[in-house]
Amino acid sequence: MSALRSTMLAAARSARLERTVTRLPVSRAVVARFVAGTTEQQAVDTARTLLRSGRFVSIDHLGEDTTDLASAQAIVANYRSLITALGSLPHADVTTGAVRPLEVSVKLSALGQALPHDGHAIARDHAHQICAAAEAAGLWVTVDAEDHTTTDSTLSIVRELRAEFPWLGTVLQAYLRRTEEDCRAMAGPGSRIRLCKGAYDEPESVAFRDRAEVDASYLRCLAVLVAGTGYPMIASHDPAVLGAAEVAVQSAQRKTEEYEYQMLFGIRSDEQQRLADAGKHVRVYVPYGDQWYGYFLRRLAERPANLGFFLRALVGG
Ligand code: FDA
Questions:
Q1: pTM for the complete prediction?
Q2: What is the value of ipTM here, to two decimals?
Q3: Exposed end of the chain (fewer CB within 10 Å): N or C?
């Protein structure tokens, strides 16, 4: 990992920098490239547009590292309201077999996972409420992956909730050394695993830090998921990953509705549309809300060109 990327990822966790950056007059316009808006209505409008274009959607209410119970409860209320609004979109018309075209993505740290007393149980109960609302509205839920200190708690909550909501998905990060084994454990019937490279600054002891090693791990993990009996969700913008994934799913003779590609809102939209037009299932991860700082900094860290875009807007603004 480059020094610049490490610095950006450290900045993503700085409350002081967050206060400064979010006050800059140019921020909102620049952030709009990666975030659908600050309101639920903007998120729903974006979902409607994407569905009409033939793409599926996962909406993320931005927020992470919640430090008090009231804030975690407020986030659950936001999700319930969002799910109701999304449920009224005409998604049932989309012909997808068992695949649900609309989904929400949740971060357990936003739901209270890090609270000092009973954080794990609080996050589990909050996630349960969101899953129950999603089930009633015909949506799916996928639990995002955060830094490695949360992985055990997150996977155990997902395993527990899957007994009641077997469609509940989760994210595995190929940069973690443990992930190939987690893929093996979780590639069984009905599982929905979103495989991504990983977006946090993790120590060498738990993660591959060299780009080539991360890419090689991604392909090994993907092979495990594709050979399994679950529903792999290939989350990457990397042409090399996408090419290898297509070869892997074809040689495993998976049908279109037995896997999907996923990309982030605002990143390689042309490629998203090209895949969808070619008949592939493509889901776009759409974040919205006020708390865009951490998400935005992680996107800047991924690609120096994104950082240049931000700095040019600052100078120009
Ligand atoms: P990477 O960033 O390595 O880029 C490889 C290549 O892709 C580039 O060289 C370029 O060719 C192409 N590319 C990338 N960005 C481009 C751009 N803007 N324009 C043109 N080409 C571009 N992480 C996490 O830790 N927890 C999570 O829960 C999630 N969730 C998640 C959901 C979804 C749907 C996605 C797509 C990603 C995540 N991530 C995530 C983020 C993920 O871990 C990772 O940081 C980013 O996807 C970037 O990795 P890539 O695989 O896209 O390739």
A1: 0.93
A2: 0.97
A3: C
